[in-house]
Amino acid sequence: MAQAAVDIPLWGIIAKAAQQPLWQLLGGGRAADIPVYNTNAGWLNLSIAQLQDEALRLLDQGYSAPKMKVGLADVNEDYRRMSAVRRASPRPGPGRTCAPRATAQRAGRGPPLPRA
Prior knowledge:
- By secondary structure, the chain is of the alpha/beta class.
- The protein has helices at residues 2-18, 22-25, 48-60, 75-88, and strands at residues 37-38, 65-70, 99-102.
- It has 4 helices and 3 strands, in the order ααβαβαβ.
- Helix 3 packs across helix 4.
């Protein structure tokens, strides 16, 4: 414990002498962005137009994907909604897609969702 009282301030002194933030001095920088997705999107009560608008807004905010909810009574309607959002994306490609998330309605029931 007593060592920390000396050790921690010394790291601050070393960083100041190097004129770098400590996180950078210790190698904490990253070479690439970390993809993130938004889980508060794609609600079952939204229309396809609303889903598309929401997905585009999230992509513009820097999210790599909206995580859409699935679990309507008709699995084909889930597929149609996800396909429409994927088609609306101006930046398709790796890391920019829609991730289905099973709701309690769908969990353990019915066939697996088709892949787009």
